[in-house]
Design goal:
Two copies of one chain form a homodimer. The longest helix of chain A has 17 residues. By secondary structure, chain A is of the alpha/beta class. In chain A, the strands form three sheets. In chain A, strands 7, 8, 9, 10, 11, 12, 14, 15, 16 and 18 form a ten-stranded mixed sheet that branches. In chain A, strand 9 and strand 10 form a beta hairpin. Helices cover about 35% and strands about 25% of the residues of chain A. At the A-B interface, helix 2, helix 6, strand 12 and helix 12 of A face helix 2, helix 6, strand 12 and helix 12 of B. Strand 12 of chain A pairs antiparallel with strand 12 of chain B.
């Protein structure tokens, strides 16, 4: 029998307890050991819980109990999770987590401590909820050079965009609906401004390229500025707008990494991933495109990924697993201004004929897009591939002719 | 440095050599050991190969060389691969394979020998080519009870059906095109009659439910009887026809397992998987639906999965991995006649009014489907859920009224 502890009894934490208890027998078979929850750590009281006797408010109970071999950290946030995880790893206990913020900001350090202490630090649940992605990238695709990863990594923003695309709902109304359905927090910033997706692509990039790519190095734009006009132009162009977290290996050894809304062609495998679903495309040089699809969040999907990591730790109590990346720095990341892609602009102008002429003069070859019911003073176009620096300089030039730039959205090459 | 051997130098085998050589450095980093190909076994001569010095025609060279720790068996077919694999495992060497026929027919025995000899027998490449599926099911989804697996497991038939659906091409013409493009063999039976998909769903079912489900227990129907009329009715019904390998856990402890063409609703995640692509849906009780998508075959995708398994073996030279299932028998599988689902019929009749009356009398509530350009003597309908035994008995009754049954296709509940 292996004793484990669960730190945090929120949505995911209570799910972990539920999955471990409800599948006790089949899990024991798979782990080849019975798994028993000895402690549940939470500062709140749960007097009515069937597991009331397992609750503790003292982290030291877990840290100092030599019987506890594996701990699930499902508290979220950097503090005190960071301090707790460090102490547990140093004490020779394996830790599994769904805490993307902690892995994205402190992963390299914690993985090094795990390595030095011959224990495991696993985090399958930190990206994609219940969708297997960390293990497939690190193990199944190990024979590939991963050329690119692009994913719809945040269910809340995908739900909002789906409502905008399919029901012509405004961003504000769709957000309100997401909040009513419990998909978005009262303070939705982490989701709608792209921070959550940013942490996830930072984790996938670090894992894939072996060096820590910190979230603050990832150019991140959310979806709060997306208007229904842009949705309509994306449709006229032949696609949809999705919030994409993306990392690409460049020839000079750096990576192009970002989170931003993108125009995605309708034929792309990511275009049909709607509502709260997540989808992650991994492009390997040998295997081609592989897509992983499922619910990216939610109590039981995320909990089941945490429990799968617990099982893996129990099976590897004396062996180190595969997960590791070294520390990294800003030199790994291509500055956003130097990255290149085609871009969509929507502008307002009082003189369309003159504006079209100016646009062609400034941007070179562009493709104008038309939509039905466009107001008289609106123009939209897609440029050729150019650096962001060029895009901005040319946009500045265009502004000087009197045109007002209302939107600028990346065109995906997927 | 770890010495490995590759048995078979066909499409996949030459791909394995190519991937191992071209990614030598990054693979060494991931495996934490350099990997060297010491032998390539093939009965043919390859005098112009850059690896000419590694070729041998003698299996004993590999078997008797104590330096060789891991062997990739990419010969295909049961003989002599079965005999070779058994001897290698008994000699304490790990074996990895893409050989679905061997795994589907001898898996339980070979996994037992691997277990007894503390070595690994891995076969990620046997299902889904380069799509990670074996490891995600056995590891990432370990905390789930897998309720159902349904997949488009054969790229050749999916290509043919896509041509029929999107270009109104006949089965014969689409098959000819698949052969010209190298997607189908000159003798296409293993693909079009569903045998290839049958082996793959047998492997996934055995892995998921822990007992060997032999291919001969899987009711298997191919796509050669699918007519363009059926494709048109599927479209009018709101979906497409796909060849699905499916296994469902039933309440009585048996499984409903089959390979057959099915009507799939357009909104299903499997409906949009076209051309030579494969897609596998795994429904877990905790994680919900997870879908894996990618190229299910081809030289480099399949080879990269074989090499990922080699890397895993090299990392676990002294540790047993997770893959195992016990032997099984016919009692695991619900007899096909006792399984239940809704079904589509297309019939010919000289008296439609009378036929409609007979159909309703015999089948109870049905839904008639109309298509444009249907000939005067054609009728199509979808029944409620009923056992296959009932379907057949009622079809027999209907035939006695003079109606001629032209098609009968399962309705998927995905």
């Amino acid at each position: 029998m292996v004793q484990v502890a669960v730190m945090g009894h929120g949505v995911v934490g209570s799910g972990v307890v539920e999955v471990l208890e409800n599948h006790r027998e089949s899990i024991a078979k798979r782990a080849k050991e019975e798994i028993n929850i000895k402690y549940i750590l939470d500062i709140r009281d749960f007097p009515d819980s069937p597991y009331a006797d397992k609750f503790t408010k003292s982290f030291d109970d877990i840290l100092n109990d030599e019987e506890v071999k594996v701990v699930a950290e499902v508290m979220g946030g950097v503090n005190p999770a960071y301090d707790f995880t460090k102490k547990l790893l140093l004490a020779g206990k394996s830790v599994v987590t769904s805490n993307k913020e902690l892995v994205a900001t402190k992963g390299a350090e914690l993985l090094q401590i795990a390595k030095d202490n011959n224990v495991n630090y696993l985090f399958e649940a930190s990206v994609g909820g219940g969708i297997p992605i960390i293990r497939p990238i690190s193990q199944c695709l190990a024979a590939n050079d991963v050329v690119e990863i692009a994913g719809i990594l945040n269910g809340t923003t995908n739900f909002i965009l789906t409502k905008m695309i399919k029901e012509n709902m405004s961003f504000e109304d769709a957000l309100k609906m997401a909040q009513q359905l419990g998909y978005a927090e009262r303070n939705p910033e982490a989701d709608v401004e792209g921070h959550d997706a940013c942490r996830k692509i930072a984790i996938l990039a670090s894992l894939t390229y072996g060096k820590h790519i910190y979230p603050e190095l990832v150019h991140t734009t959310g979806i709060s500025a997306i208007a229904l006009e842009d949705v309509a132009y994306a449709s006229a162009w032949g696609g949809v707008i999705k919030l994409i977290g993306q990392v690409k290996a460049l020839d000079d050894g750096t990576v192009d990494i970002c989170v931003e809304p993108m125009f995605i062609e309708r034929s792309s495998q990511l275009a049909g991933i709607d509502d709260v679903f997540n989808g992650i495309l991994v492009r390997g040089d040998a295997t081609g495109d592989v897509v992983f699809y499922g619910k990216g969040a939610g109590k039981l999907p995320t909990a089941s990924a945490v429990v799968a990591d617990i099982i893996d730790c129990v099976k590897h109590l004396k062996a180190r697993k595969y997960l590791y990346w070294a520390d990294g720095d800003a030199s790994l990341v291509k500055p956003y201004e130097e990255t290149s892609f085609a871009v969509y602009f929507r502008i307002e102008t009082n003189d369309k004929a003159a504006a079209e002429e100016n646009i062609s003069k400034i941007f070179g070859t562009v493709k104008f897009i038309a939509r039905s019911e466009a107001p008289e003073n609106e123009l939209a176009f897609v440029t050729d591939v150019m650096t962001v620096a060029d895009q901005l300089a040319k946009a500045e030039q265009l502004s000087k002719t009197g045109a007002v730039i209302k939107s600028k959205i990346r065109i995906s090459d997927l």
